[in-house]
UniProtKB/TrEMBL annotation:
SUPFAM superfamilies: S-adenosyl-L-methionine-dependent methyltransferases (SSF53335)
NCBIfam families cross-referenced by the UniProt entry: MTase_LIC12133
Record keyword Methyltransferase present: yes
InterPro entries reported for this sequence: Put_MTase_LIC12133 (IPR027612), SAM-dependent_MTases_sf (IPR029063)
Keywords noted in UniProt: Methyltransferase, Transferase
Molecular function GO terms recorded: methyltransferase activity
One BP term from GO: methylation
EC number(s) per entry: 2.1.1.-
Top-level taxon of origin: Bacteria
The UniProt record lists the keyword Methyltransferase: yes
Name of the protein: Methyltransferase, TIGR04325 family
Length: 273
């Protein structure tokens, strides 16, 4: 009976004028909600999502709200289930003298968590790229942490090291630029591109709007075809791929654009001739 009631409620919500009314009501809650990780709407591009963002909070992580730069500290204590593929491949393939660029790595959340599980080779450098407000906080945090010796920080990709790895861990969705374009902008071409916690739709690419509590962020959902095309453009070979079953993107009143898992892959870049 519960299942039938749930199906009936879902069908009721899809009636056009009912769906529109519910969506409008949700938009009001979305604009003021705190301590949430909510999504709203389906848009063709970043500009459309930004234009529809409420004025009640700033846009993106590069803002003066200290909480934006202090988020995710809890994830430093232990890795999540979705982090295990990253830990596996780094443990298996990372070699001494290699360097890794953590694109959108915040204050080094994943690095600090992984130090509890992996012994990084020596020497080795983990470089974090993020927006200036976050990098400022990252440097302050590293100055008080005795595990930060292998870390360095940049807020300009032109300053990136000659990295062997580029890691996108839950960050690629926040940039209005395809992955192949980001790789091409680097001063040096890496050997591996490690992507994790990426929202991927089986048919189409689109953008939604995320409320991260302290700000609103346009949030890209990759279509699987577009993602594979981008990998082909950077002359990449997919070595492994996986589902992040503990991640989901629920966009209320847009069931066809909601996701019940995220996606990850390890890509090896072939040399350019």
């Amino acid at each position: 009976m519960f299942r039938r009631a749930k199906v009936f409620l879902h069908q009721f919500e899809q009636i056009p004028f009912i769906n529109h009314a519910l969506d409008r009501h949700y938009a009001k809650e979305f604009a003021s909600a705190t301590n949430v990780n909510w999504f709203k709407g389906v848009y063709p591009d970043f500009a459309s999502a930004i234009a529809d963002a409420p004025a009640s909070k700033p846009l993106g992580y590069n803002n003066e709200a200290p909480a934006s730069a202090e988020m995710y500290r809890f994830r430093m204590q232990a890795i999540s289930p979705c982090d295990y593929p990253v830990a596996f491949w780094l443990n298996r393939l990372l070699e001494p003298n290699q360097k890794l660029l953590d694109f959108g790595g915040h204050v080094g959340v994943l690095y600090y968590a992984l130090t509890k599980y992996l012994t990084f080779p020596t020497p080795f450098e983990w470089q974090i790229y993020d927006v200036p407000a976050v990098i400022k906080e990252a440097r302050k945090f590293a100055a008080t942490n005795n595990k930060s010796a292998q870390l360095s920080f940049i807020d300009d990709l032109a300053e990136a090291n000659e990295n062997d790895w580029v890691l996108f861990s839950g960050s690629l969705q926040y940039v209005d630029e395809p992955v192949n374009s980001i790789i091409e902008r680097l001063p040096y071409r890496p050997t591996y591109v490690l992507i994790n916690m990426l929202p991927v739709h089986p048919r189409e690419s689109y953008v939604t709007l995320q409320n991260i509590s302290t700000a609103f962020c346009p949030y890209r959902i990759y279509g699987v075809g577009d993602l594979l095309e981008d990998i082909q453009k950077m002359n990449g070979e997919v070595i492994d791929e996986w589902k992040n079953a503990d991640k989901e993107c629920v966009i209320p009143y847009h069931p066809d654009h909601s996701l019940d898992h995220y996606y990850g892959m390890l890509v090896r870049l072939k040399p350019r001739h």
